[in-house]
Amino acid sequence: MQSEVKSLNEECGIFGVWGTPDAARLTYIGLFALQHRGQEGAGITVNHDGELRTKRGFGLLTDVFDSPNAVANLDGDAAIGHVRYSTAGSNLLENIQPLPFNFSDTQFALAHNGNLTNAISIRKQLEDRGAIYHSSSDTENLMHLIRLSQAPDLDGQVKEALNIIKGGFAYLIITKDRLYAALDPNGFRPLVVGQLPNGAYVVCSETCALDAVGAKFKFDVQPGQLIKIDDTGITIDQYTDDTQLSICSMEFIYFARPDSDIYGVNVHSARKRMGAMLAKEQPADADIVTGVPNSSLSAAMGYAEAAGLPYEMGLVKNQYSARTFIEPTQELREQGVNMKLSAVKGVVKGKRVVLVDDSIVRGTTSRRIVKLLKDAGAASVHLRIASPPLRYPCFYGIDIQHASELIAANHSIEEMRQIFDADSLGFLSVDSLIKAVNLKTNAPNKGLCVAYFDGKYPTPLYDYQKEYDRDQAQLHAAKMR
Ligand SMILES: O=P(O)(O)OC[C@H]1O[C@H](OP(=O)(O)OP(=O)(O)O)[C@H](O)[C@@H]1O
Ligand SMILES: NC(=O)CC[C@H](N)C(=O)O
Ligand SMILES: [Mg+2]
What function does the entry list (predicted)? Predict the structure, then answer.
């Protein structure tokens, strides 16, 4: 299988719709627009006259639903779907979502984007009391907690369960007669509600999926909200008021699609502003500016515009490099970058190039792209990164859980410059990142989580705290040597 190097593992994408005849087909179209958020597995659960049916499998949406009949067979007027990149529990069929649950009296299915920080301890407690888990995914915990709740009705049970889990979560829950959508108290992950021309409501990770199905944007789900959609319409409730927006800044930097809007901010425009601010903070003596397809193109355009330099296509990406999964070894990762990117000699030969990428994780891409441009005859390569150095892991849904994997956690900027063989290297500051996104909120960091850059996590780390402390101590000891 050909691989694309995904240095930052993406997260998951979720989509749900209630009250329209072709629910599974719409969910397929919506998930297709969210495919960039997860390529390990995909699935759809449909509600057919109150009965839930699930189809899920490994790979891309087009691998799982590989014929027109595969979607047509899922007949029903409500559905939820998921594209997965695992953060907890490995790439096993039982972990691919939606997770279906059949009880003697009812059925549920869950789809989740994010990562729970107390999943291990909840599971331990419940298993000690006799619970039997179906999967090794963190997502499943919510189902057990809903069933164990003593609240008098399902709304109350769901609210009680949501108050026990911690970390990052945008959840969709489908039952025989309703669809719930819930967002964690920090709103780490984006989640939006839209409406189809026939009145049916849609809930999904990004607005690009609303556009894909022809739904009109209604609102961004807010931290701590529980939305219920059923045949009577939509109800907006809070399961907790103890909330503070800190949406993942990597959504704006890299994850989300440029045509999506998050809390009213267009992702492409935010990236352009990051590039423009980078040009002011980290100018370079150069002839042209080029981006690294795909995710840094917006930032490169912003850099070029602000620096008054021509924006050029110095690198091209092979369109056929399939998005599958991150390769496990460094050798395979490097091979992947070689297959994916190549330099346009006629453009870069003899030129002083500003090379803009959106982020550096392990440094595999940077090492390779500087060499590609130099081999193609670039006179000099000034590497500019439209985000701050990634030095701390994330526990809310991005799969970088150890600082040892992050090149910026282990090396100074000058050391990295030497490793990449760049003529100069500069990063965006955290302040400029926050200004570039410019969310309209009074929350700290203007509503952004920037913990990967400054190590200040907006919540306790629960089950991850010990491991995090150990990692940091090891890193510190290695630096002292
Ligand atoms: O330092 P590294 O470990 O190489 O990771 C950083 C690179 O990974 C991401 O791109 P990615 O290849 O995931 O995909 P893209 O085509 O969406 O930019 C990011 O945009 C950087 O280019
Ligand atoms: N990337 C995600 O959002 C993953 C969701 C969930 N934690 C899983 O591993 O399946
Ligand atoms: Mg990239």
Answer: Catalyzes the formation of phosphoribosylamine from phosphoribosylpyrophosphate (PRPP) and glutamine.
CATH number, residue 96:
3.60.20.10
Nearest-CA residue for ligand 2 atom 10 is 86
Assess whether 305 and 191 both reside in one domain: no
Indicate whether 240 and 331 sit together in one domain.
Answer: no
Name the residue among 246, 262, 268 with its Cα closest to residue 386.
Answer: 268
- 15, 93, 112: which to mutate for ligand 2, most atoms within 8 A of CB? 112
Range of the domain at 231: 13-244
Q: Is 8 within the bounds of a domain?
A: no
Answer yes or no: is 477 within a domain. no
Q: How far, in Å, CA of 302 to CA of 278, rounded?
A: 9
ipTM score here? 0.97
Please work out whether the CB of residue 294 comes within 6 Å of at least one atom of ligand 1.
Answer: yes
387-426 pLDDT per residue, tens: 999 999 999 988 777 898 899 999 999 999 999 999 999 9
Q: Look up the pTM and report it.
A: 0.95
- For residue 465, is it within any domain? no
359: CA distance to ligand 1 center in Å? 7
Q: Is 369 left (phi over 0), alpha (psi -120 to 50) or beta?
A: alpha
Is the residue at 5 inside a domain? no
Nearest CA to ligand 1 atom 14: 6
Domains: count for the chain: 2
Q: How does DSSP classify residue 339?
A: H
Q: Radius of gyration (Cα) for the chain, nearest Å?
A: 22
CA 466, 471, 474, 476 torsion: positive or negative?
negative
Q: 9: Cβ below 6 Å to ligand 2?
A: no
Mean pLDDT of 17-25: 97
pLDDT digits (tens, 9 = 90+) for 448-471: 999 999 999 999 999 999 999 999
Residue 3 predicted with pLDDT over 90: no
Q: Which residues line the annotated binding site for Mg(2+)? A: 295, 357-358
Residues 172 and 48 in one domain: yes
